[in-house]
Amino acid sequence: MKNNVGGADKIIRIVVGLIIIVLGFVYSSWWGLIGLIPLITGLAGQCSLYLPFGISTCKVKNTEEK
Q1: What is the pLDDT of residues 23-37, one digit of tens each?
Q2: Alpha helices in the chain (DSSP H)
Q3: pLDDT, tens digit, 9 for 90 and up, residues 40-50
Q4: HSE of 26 in the Cβ direction (CA atoms, 13 Å)?
Q5: Angle at CA 7, nearest 5°, toward 6 and 11?
Q6: Sequence spans of domains, the chain
Q7: What is the pTM of this model?
Q8: Helix %, strand %, coil % for the chain, to 5?
């Protein structure tokens, strides 16, 4: 599977995932486990919800030669 999560998107996902996990620990809530989803997708660079919609936040590489 190709990477479809770009630089800024990765950073946002990782930060939001960590914040949710920390809040789950602070409030002793199982809801903190939801933070694993953006954290894992940010670290892996792949989001399966982007696939059906053809979304990609990765920069497009120009393959044409000049």
Answers
A1: 999 999 999 999 999
A2: 7-26, 36-44
A3: 999 999 999 99
A4: 6
A5: 115
A6: 7-44
A7: 0.83
A8: 60, 0, 40
